[in-house]
Structures are given as structure tokens and as C-alpha cells.
Amino acid sequence: YLRLDKIPHIWCPGCGHGIILNSLIRGIHEVGLKQENTVIVSGIGCSSRAPGYLNFNTLHTTHGRALAFATGVKHSNPDLNVIVLTGDGDSAAIGGNHLIHAARRNINITTIVFNNNIYGMTSGQYSPMTPTDAIATTSPYGNVEKSFDLCNMVKSAGATFVGRGATFNTKQLIQLVSGALSHNGFSFVEALSQCPTYYGRRNNLKSAIDMLKWQKDNSVSVKAYDKLPEEKKEGKIVLGELFRDDSIPEYTDRYAEMVKNVQKRS
Ligand code: SF4
């Protein structure tokens, strides 16, 4: 599935994005998607370079607009498997509106957010996913804003598969990607990634390995979280399949049904 023999990647040493890309390939393999029937769409940012390294039909679009392009692709040919690869800045800031409405429509697109808590490509400005107090190029004394819980946001908007994984646990990440790819509806996976070059260095998180350890120490599985006493839940990052509903009709199915009914009447 890879074409790195022809195109060398430009991700920094220790970057988590390659781990997410690897998990995506394994998920695609597990579910058995065909290359000729799969389109992978991205916006702009370090994460959005991922489709360029894959031997699939790919679209590298404009900043924040991957879901708008992907919606057009899916709407014009519902038989295609459509996957969006995006970053936290690309999806939660400039592309936030498209994310909300793709979730609301429950269109059968799988979206994977590479969440490194920062704008990496443009040298480390804070994003809507940067934690409060974290240091970024544009918050040298600490970020005063509160970050989004993107999983909760898309669930509230209407997504019917929502999961959160992390690069320290590839087994779980592959399971989440497979679950999302096999779901008929808007499926969303937030994948925590490490950016040692900007987020890690500015926040004294040391090496990429230390950042993976940080992920592990600060996260908990959704099952274990439910059993925790309230006072221990604060600040924990919850990982796993957070929500799934297979009973809600998918957008392109409903659209086709509507067209059929109109044709019958005329
Ligand atoms: Fe990865 Fe950060 Fe380098 Fe971008 S800047 S490639 S996110 S380590």
C-alpha cells in the first residue's frame, strides 16, 4: 500500500504520524478495502501529507476543507470507501464547521484526526486541541484557552462511531480504525500523536519515547474509566470505542431512497 520507495517522507524523527499511518494500513488490510475503490482525502498540515505516501486514489486539498471535498466524492459515488486524514488544527479550527456538519449528516466517511496538540507544519502555534497552560509559539507564557473534547463534539453533532486511540497502543489503534472503516455512517477516530519537534521540546517532554510514556501514564481505557471514583477521573484521557450506533440511517442511503421515491411518484 505504501509508495515510500518513490517518495521519501519528510516527518521528523520520533514523529507519531508514521505510527498512525501504519495503523491505517493495517486497518484497511484487516477490513479488506480494495485500493481501486478507496479514496483518501487530506487537508493541509504534517498529518495531511500522509495520503501522498499511499498507493491509493488520493486528494490533497486545501486547509480545513478535506471533509468538504470528501463529501463531494462520496455523494457523487457512494460505492467508494472515503477516508479523511487530518490534523487537530485542520479539523478543529479552520475545518471545524465541515466536521460538525459531516457528523450531523452521518455520511459514510471515516475521519482520522492526527492529534499532536499543535500546528506542527507552521512551527508550533497552539491549536484548539492544545491543553490549557501548554507552551506554544503563540502562547509563550502558557495557553489560556480550554481545548475541545473533539470526540464529545462529533458525538453530539451526530457521528455514529467515535473512538480515541494513541500511538503508544497500536493494537487498540488498529482495532479502532478497523471498527471505523467497517461502520456505515460517519466514523471518527482521534489518534493522539507526538510532535517532539515543537510540542515536546517547548513543553520539556524530552524524547518521543518519553512522550509515549506520558500518553500511557495519563490515559485510561473506557471500561476502566467508568469504574474509577469521581475524584480520580479528572484529567484522564479516555481511550477506546467511546460510542457506536449502527441503527441510524446513513446519508447517501437516505438520499438514494429519496430519489427512488421521487422517481416513483413522477
Ligand atoms: Fe511530526 Fe511535529 Fe515534525 Fe510535524 S513538526 S513532522 S508533527 S514531529
UniProtKB/TrEMBL annotation:
Residues 44-190 form the Thiamine pyrophosphate enzyme TPP-binding domain. Signal peptide: none annotated. Keywords: Oxidoreductase. InterPro entries: 2-oxoacid:Fd_oxidoreductase (IPR051457), THDP-binding (IPR029061), TPP_enzyme_TPP-bd (IPR011766). GO terms for molecular function: oxidoreductase activity, acting on the aldehyde or oxo group of donors, iron-sulfur protein as acceptor; thiamine pyrophosphate binding. It comes from the Bacteria. GO terms for biological process: cellular respiration. This is 2-oxoglutarate ferredoxin oxidoreductase, beta subunit. It comes from Natranaerobius thermophilus (strain ATCC BAA-1301 / DSM 18059 / JW/NM-WN-LF).
